[in-house]
Amino acid sequence: MSQAPAAVDSGIVRKVALSSFLGNFIEWFDYGSYAYYAVIISAVLFSADDPTTADLIGTFAVFAISFVMRPIGALFWGSMGDKKGRKWTLSVSIFLMSGATFLIGCLPTYAAIGIGAPLLLLVLRMVQGFSAAGEYAGAATFLAEYAPTNKRGLYCSLVPASTAVGLLAASALAFATNVALSQDAVLSWGWRIPFLLAGPLGLIAHYIRTKLEDSPTYQAMQEVVSGDEGDTPHPVRDLFRGHLRELVISFGACTLNAVGFYAVLTYLPTYLETAVGMPTGDAQMATNIALVVYVGFIFISGKMSDRFGRKKMLVTACLLFVLLTVPAFMVLNTAQFGLVLISELTLCFILTLNDGTLSSYLTETFPTEMRYTGFALSFNLANAIFGGTAPMVSTWLIAVTGSTMSPAWYMVAVALVALVAMVLSHENSHKHLDEI
Questions:
Q1: pLDDT attached to residue 316
Q2: Largest CB tally within 10 Å, which of 21, 42, 194, 377?
């Protein structure tokens, strides 16, 4: 076992934090834009008679299908991140992500090229899914390996916080364009703005990352590996051979985060508009306010996890989702702005107990030589199966059952699965990452 690396200069940690924040912000600004413009995209790039059923489900199906690439991307980027380094992997993946997003903003409409429009959208979304698979896990791993042990939860909470800020920026921009532009202007060119912004933002994030070095923890591991005369390390092989139990438990823990994140933070505006009948502006405003508060909740949760431990925080989140999700959706169905906002804030608070803790929990689950791979695979596999499908499944459940409460019961079921996983989980909150 290598010795714990010496403390890192605080200036370097700040640069790592900035690069992690910005890269993850770009990813989720792009994903949030797609979700918040779902109704517009369905009208521009698809063709169906009923925009609230076939067309909207088709838009969310493309959203979900892109997640098929997430596990594939996780294996690739995770392996590269453990072999070639966190810096190299994050610098390359941001190019693919921002490039694909930029091209979505350039897509011709269904009226111009017919079926080619949704097919090209699908291809670009799959490129997004492939490249995005390495971003969240890589940013969290990179930051965790630089962070002080007693503040790892707080530092790692910066990653989900950047996710929320990205969604907030996308939501705010969607709200602003809907207010400032006519419906014809939004359909014509307004919806393209957030996707086109990904180009310059991606270049900035890439530049910052090229100026950083890999973490001392990773470099110490590389020195040990280079001096070992045994077999060459193979992160994917070693993960399945020696850490399958940890991988399965981590996957279970990630399922609730996947469904909760996409249901609460990206699907709710569409749910409130199409299922509940709330005005678009009110639904978007409630989500914007909830996202602002959510960012503050995230940092509080990260700090609390440093004090109380990751396991207690994650178990608490599971129990609260089981108990309060259905009542919260009942309140959402009133379509009254004040009550809807209180309900969204409640769901956001519960989600932050999970989201603000999960990134540090996953970095503490796997050893350095397979940390990126284990984190990326468990997180992205859960997102591919449960997260990317959450909007589509929710829309489908409502259409099939005729009940606007069906998404709530779905979330309760997933919370019970995550609870079992967390009961079986570990607690490494106060260990240095070299000791895991």
A1: 96
A2: 377
